[in-house]
Amino acid sequence: xxxxxxxxxxxxxxxxxxxxxxxxxxxxxxxxxxxxxxxxxxxxxxxxxxxxxxxxxxxxxxxxxxxxxxxxxxxxxxxxxxxxxxxxxxxxxxxxxxxxxxxxxxxxxxx
Amino acid sequence: xxxxxxxxxxxxxxxxxxxxxxxxxxxxxxxxxxxxxxxxxxxxxxxxxxxxxxxxxxxxxxxxxxxxxxxxxxxxxxxxxxxxxxxxxxxxxxxxxxxxxxxxxxxxxxxxxxx
Lengths: 111, 115
Known about the structure:
The structure holds 2 protein chains of 2 kinds. By secondary structure, chain A is mostly beta strands. Chain A is 0% helix and 58% strand. Chain A has strands at residues 4-7, 10-14, 19-25, 32-38, 44-51, 56-59, 62-67, 72-77, 86-93, 99-101, 105-110. In chain A, the strands form 2 sheets. In chain A, strands 2, 4, 5, 9, 10 and 11 form a 6-stranded mixed β-sheet that branches. In chain A, a hairpin with a 5-residue loop joins β9 (86-93) and β10. The termini of chain A are far apart. The mean pLDDT of chain B is 91. Chain B is built from no helices and 11 strands. Chain B is mainly β. The interface between A and B is medium-sized, with 24 and 25 residues.
């Protein structure tokens, strides 16, 4: 069964800290791995897409890595800001119509 | 990047009425769109896959007669919650993707409240 887990479920940090969010997937035959951000009452905003042939992607203060063999992806947020507070979800995307979301990590960055 | 537009963002209706939610792919033609439901502080639950020109594929436990999906064009899919009841109150989100395993793009979501 294809499953995605995310650790931690919730995280609260002071402003300025660097932090790492973890995503694990059971089926390593992924096509892509995508990270999203969701603000309360809003849809999902795509942050980074890592193709299976890639090891990492970077956008601004965000860096996402992918290790297919171990079934893990991490999202690194540098110099966190209160505006980064949101729920972060990862999705393992498989070929065809199949994709699996993790339950998300709720991040609070305190000023 | 691609943009998915969802409308309405909020809707309040009386019990027993039907509500239609629209999802539009603005930047590319989407042969497939996905409809989700999300309960407070929970992750997304895939309800159905909407296929242009054919019947939608529903996930186990989702009533197809309750949640009618129409994908009449390559840019528009609609979800109609029929005979809505308070337990149907939820946050509904649509998404589409580029290609068979491409990047997923999401609408802004629709908050349905059934009184």
